[in-house]
């Protein structure tokens, strides 16, 4: 089984209304469709661009984070239509939703048949807790698609080896990691952990981040991002485990082909067989 994946380095800039957001999203989706992608990954928190619309009246004041869930219906309708129109699986980055009195940073998977799957972020950063009053999700999802089984782990989540091992134990061969980091330190924390997870679990990791700036939106003024398709580090794969990567902080889409059969090949008889050789007598996958 093979799947073609595209990842969007989404350029954040101030917009005037939801239509501006929809046009930009549609541009990226149509770009990936021209390359006949099966999956398209958008970054974490890219819908914060909607906060830059502001309250109007020329105040220049951005909407607060608590207003982002008010765009959920439009966001879902936009991505559902694009997924069904193009026949692609769209991973709509993350969007902030409200459940009761709590806010959750939530990844969306839009299927070509109109279904929607979600994964709430499981590990919340100090900024998300202190500044945005976010709550953490409490369950790992794996998603079956006609191209294979996948999981979506959001930025900080990839820095915790246990959760990726759980995803692999449940059959996920590809981990999609939408991310949003504001400087090189954060970017490299996520990137290095993506590489480590491919080696530990013999899976693919597809990641991307936001680029550009939202000058009026607190904590979204700085963005340092790059999309990458990362493989296990063994003979059937590119040297260094890097299939392809974008230009850092550029507005662009990258695309690559994932051969899932190669994963089983290296799990069975690779130079090392890290997945097979894990010691579940000493530590568990906690499925």
Summarize the structure.
With 287 residues, the chain is of the alpha/beta class. The chain is built from six helices and 15 strands.
Helical content stands at: 25-40%
| Number of helical segments with 4 or more residues | 6
Quickly name the level 1 CATH class: Alpha Beta
Succession of helices and strands: EEHEHEEEHEEEHEHEEEEEH
Give the C-alpha Rg.
18 Å
Count of β-strands: 15
- Strand content is 25-35%
Distance between the termini: 25 Å
CATH topology: Nitrilase/N-carbamoyl-D-aminoacid amidohydrolase
Taken together, the total number of domains comes to 1
Instruction: Note the quaternary state here.
Output: single chain
Shape: globular
Structure explained in plain terms:
- By secondary structure, the protein is of the alpha/beta class.
- The protein has a single domain (2-269), classed as Nitrilase/N-carbamoyl-D-aminoacid amidohydrolase, CATH 3.60.110.
- 26% of the residues lie in helices and 27% in strands.
- It contains six helices and 15 strands.
- The strands form three sheets. Strands 1, 3, 4, 5, 6, 7 and 15 form a seven-stranded mixed sheet that branches. The chain has a six-stranded mixed sheet with strand order 8-9-10-11-13-14, covered by helices on one side.
- Helix 1 (18-34) runs parallel beside helix 2 and helix 4 packs parallel to helix 5 (184-201).
């Amino acid at each position: 089984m093979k799947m073609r994946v595209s990842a969007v380095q989404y350029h954040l800039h101030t917009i005037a209304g939801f239509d501006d957001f929809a046009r930009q999203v549609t541009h990226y989706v149509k770009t990936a469709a021209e390359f006949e992608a099966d999956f398209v990954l958008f970054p974490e928190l890219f819908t914060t661009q909607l906060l830059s619309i502001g309250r109007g009246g020329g105040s220049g004041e951005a909407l607060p984070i608590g207003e982002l869930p008010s765009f959920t219906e439009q966001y879902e309708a936009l991505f559902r239509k694009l997924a069904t129109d193009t026949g692609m699986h769209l991973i709509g980055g993350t969007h902030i939703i409200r459940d009761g009195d709590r806010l959750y940073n939530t990844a969306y998977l839009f299927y070509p048949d109109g279904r929607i799957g979600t994964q709430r972020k499981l590990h919340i950063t100090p900024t998300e807790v202190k500044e945005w009053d976010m709550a953490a999700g409490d369950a790992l999802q794996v998603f079956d698609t006609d191209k294979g089984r996948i999981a979506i782990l959001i930025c900080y989540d990839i820095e915790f080896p246990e959760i990726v091992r759980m995803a692999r134990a449940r059959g996920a061969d590809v981990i999609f990691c939408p991310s949003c980091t504001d400087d090189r330190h954060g970017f490299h924390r996520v990137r290095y952990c993506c590489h480590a997870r491919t080696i530990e679990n013999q899976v693919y990791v597809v990641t991307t981040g936001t680029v550009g700036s939202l000058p009026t939106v607190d904590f979204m003024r700085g963005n340092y991002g790059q999309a990458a398709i990362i493989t296990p580090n063994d003979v059937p794969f590119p040297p260094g485990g890097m299939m392809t990567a974008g230009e850092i902080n550029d507005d662009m889409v990258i695309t690559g082909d994932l051969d899932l059969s190669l994963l089983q090949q290296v799990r069975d008889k690779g130079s090392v067989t890290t997945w097979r050789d894990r010691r579940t007598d000493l530590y568990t996958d906690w499925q």
